[in-house]
Amino acid sequence: MSVDLDSLYQEIILDHYRNPHHAGLRDPFESEVHHVNPTCGDEITLRVHLDGEPGHETVSDVSYDAEGCSISQAAASVMADLVIGQQVDEALRKHQAFLELMQSRGTIEPDEEVLEDGIAFAGVSKFPARVKCALLGWMAFKDATSTILAGTASTTTPEENR
Amino acid sequence: MTATGSSTLPGLLPDLEVIRKDFPILSRRLADDRPLVYLDSANTSQKPQCVIDAMVDHLERHNANVARAMHQLGAESSEAFEAARDKVAAFLNAPSRDEVIFTKNASEALNLVANTLAWARGPLEVAEGDRVVITQMEHHSNIVPWQLLTQRTGADLRWFGLTDDGQLDLSDIDELITERTKVVSLTWVSNMLGTINPVAEIARRAHEVGAIVVVDASQAAPQLPVDVQASGADVVVFTGHKVTGPTGIGVLWGKRELLDQLPPFLGGGEMIETVTMERSTYAGIPHKFEAGTPPIVEAVGLGAAVDYLGAIGLDNIHRHEQAITGYLLEGLATVPGVTVLGPLDPTLRGGAVSFEVDGVHPHDVSQLLDSFGIAVRAGHHCAKPAHKRFGVQSSTRASSYLYTTPAEVDAFVEGIIATQKYFKVA
Questions:
Q1: Among A12, B129, B158, B301, which one is least packed by beta carbons within 10 Å?
Q2: What phi-psi label fits residue B273: left (phi over 0), alpha (psi between -120 and 50 degrees) or beta?
Q3: Which segments constitute the NIF system FeS cluster assembly NifU N-terminal domain (chain A) (predicted)?
Q4: A156 lies in a domain?
């Protein structure tokens, strides 16, 4: 088996794929979004629940219903682990760090302090076709959180988008 | 890669090793020095040396614009471009070369028909209350243009559903094809399920109510003899790059009496008869539908490609595809946890086989196979409604062509088993 393949499918990624953390849709939430990867059809419906004073919100919960490959499922699981319980600005900082890692084509050494299990995805950045898979859940989280902060959140997903 | 004991499969092309040598890319080595096993021909076919040479020769020796340049090179280029039209007309058994329109691809050809039917006035016009009928197994390129047409005109879009074994469900044909039906557009061979549809029978029913029949032959033209006259269709489209030709060129064949009645699609150079500042008159077919400088070297390449397929013989290629597809289906049937979508009888289908592997997402199947040097497609194959019909979001698709060997199929089946082991599902 090629070295590259094992760097893509880290055991930690396969573990998250088989047993995703925080999966399922839960109440309460202030925003629900539905994202798709149009090239392959992978989908995620994701809810975000924030607590706290404006400007000092905490991510109290991220829940999701995702259908997709090992990389997209595991990335959503790791993302939920990383952002739940964090201050919103810290959660968005992790999003930015993960995005930069994915766009690095293998040139960035990830910061384990910031990304924890997320560093296992460093190998994904060498497979351009899979970067979108890893980012699907993260982009949904960023979108849902941003709409809450901007006061434009939707709490229902139109049926035709499901 | 050499074919082993299984090379005695009945129906295989007899000179398979010679044919393979026509395709330079098939000798590529991939990462880890793996030989290429190319099973993505329904996505795009590989190109024989004669196509590559024809295009290079044109660019090196004959390059000029067509129909506008009065010099020697212009004459040579125009002659090469129009000779390609003759070759395509022969490939399709078209009654007239003028009925062969070059487009950018099959999608543009379908959009040409859908748009000009919206703009037409008189009996061809598709208007509010009219009906357009498609099928649930269409590629998005034969769905979206008709959605746009019916949304813009207020016409009604309906479709044939699918049976559990991936055939068209024709049980409600009398409710679908009625006096209101103006257009029936369907694929000849499904790019996802592989199903070969009874085009002539549906065309006969559609013509009884005066509807126009549009056939997407993108998957049929590479592997079946496509005789547009026998098909019963009014319009047949296909794309160059799936018939061993280059990308950037597609073909629309249409009956002259239909094409003459349709208004122009794109305006510009070449499609006119005369232009004043107030108005223009238009060229006759085929030029009426070929605005602007056409894909010249691509047409030359396509001409070489259809000559190449014609020399091998579409009947022979079809037999080869059936033999390889049968062998591939037999191979997949030996692997527990693999489910094929579409007909299991190789005589009812083309060479694209989509399947599910229990517990492994198609992306991951494709990634593992790629690490073994095996190229397949994973995703919805631009056929989301057909996937939804079978309750799946995506699938993996292996698609063979005239250069595929039984040994490559063996490597593919072994690759699926190795994939299951890697993901610990077997």
A1: B129
A2: alpha
A3: 9-133
A4: no
Nearest to A2 among B31, B378, B380 (CB): B31
Is A40 in contact with B367 (Cβ distance < 8 A)?
no
**Which domain CATH number covers A56?**
3.90.1010.10
Q: Which residues pair with B186 in a beta bridge?
A: B215
Please tell me the distance from the alpha carbon of residue B313 to that of residue B259, in angstroms, as a whole number: 30
Question: How does pLDDT run across B256-268, given as a tens digit for each residue?
Answer: 999 999 999 999 9
Write down the ipTM of this complex.
0.83
Q: What is the mean pLDDT of chain B?
A: 95
Count: domains in chain A: 1
Is A162 inside any structural domain? no
Higher pLDDT: B228 or A112? It is B228
Q: Which helix (H) or strand (E) holds A82?
A: helix A70-83
The residues near A156 (Cβ < 8 Å, ≥ 6 apart) are: A32
Q: Assign A161 a pLDDT band (cuts: 50, 70, 90).
A: very low
A8 to chain B: which residues are within 8 Å by CB? 367
Asked if residue A155 belongs to a domain, the reply is no
**pTM of the entire structure?**
0.92
Measure in Å the smallest separation between the Cα of B180 and chain A Cα atoms. Answer: 28
